[in-house]
């Protein structure tokens, strides 16, 4: 059986001959894709945006933590200053009397509500506990700082 030329060509029409696709005339083994598809571009952008969102959230939380730490330091300095004032007043008196005071103060643009308590120690005579509680707001939340110390006031001997 012999095949005519047109039969042979029609039989081989879908085959690759000499590195060319006979149907399209393009190179058979090379990819013709030269760019990214729209789906690949959208997926890449979504991954990058999600990464940036996570990074920005982490930075935002760190800024909040640093700000809160700064406020706590300022509050501790305020409490220390107030406590030193109270200790000087008590040491200047002849006798310390248990007491309780409260008030509000604005310092460095922050409002502090404080409460002071002076109590005599039940076990040791002439030993007094000074407790200062300070309440301040940060991020619409009440924060509490407490500073306590002891003062010993010896009785004056009378002759």
Task: Please give a structural write-up.
- With about 160 residues, the protein is α+β, with helices and mostly antiparallel strands.
- It has one domain (about 40-150): 2-Layer Sandwich (Pantoate--beta-alanine Ligase, Chain: A,domain 2), CATH 3.30.1300.
- The chain is built from two helices and six strands; from the N terminus they run H-E-E-H-E-E-E-E.
- It has a four-stranded antiparallel beta sheet with strand order 3-4-5-6, with helices on one face. The chain has a two-stranded antiparallel ribbon with strand order 1-2.
- The chain is rod-shaped and about 125 Å long.
CATH architecture: 2-Layer Sandwich
Query: What's the Cα radius of gyration?
Result: 41 Å
Structural class by SSE content: alpha+beta
What's the overall average pLDDT, rounded?
A: 79
Strand order of the largest sheet: 3-4-5-6
Distance between the termini: 147 Å
How would you describe the shape? rod-shaped
Beta-strand segment tally = 6
Keywords, separated by commas or semicolons:
Pantoate--beta-alanine Ligase, Chain: A,domain 2, alpha+beta, 4-stranded antiparallel β-sheet, 2 helices, 159 residues, rod-shaped, two-stranded antiparallel ribbon
């Amino acid at each position: 059986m012999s095949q005519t030329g047109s039969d042979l060509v029609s039989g081989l029409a879908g085959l690759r001959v000499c590195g060319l696709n006979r149907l399209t005339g393009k190179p058979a083994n090379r990819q013709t894709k030269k760019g990214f598809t729209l789906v690949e571009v959208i997926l890449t952008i979504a991954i990058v945006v999600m990464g940036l969102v996570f990074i920005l959230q982490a930075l935002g939380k760190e800024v909040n933590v640093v700000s809160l730490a700064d406020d706590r330091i300022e509050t501790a300095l305020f409490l220390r200053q107030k406590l030193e004032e109270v200790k000087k007043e008590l040491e200047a008196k002849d006798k310390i009397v248990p007491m309780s005071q409260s008030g509000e103060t604005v310092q460095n643009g922050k409002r502090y509500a404080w409460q002071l308590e002076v109590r005599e120690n039940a076990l040791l005579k002439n030993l007094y506990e000074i407790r200062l509680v300070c309440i301040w707001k940060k991020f619409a939340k009440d924060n509490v700082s407490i500073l306590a110390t002891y003062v010993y006031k010896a009785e004056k001997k009378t002759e």
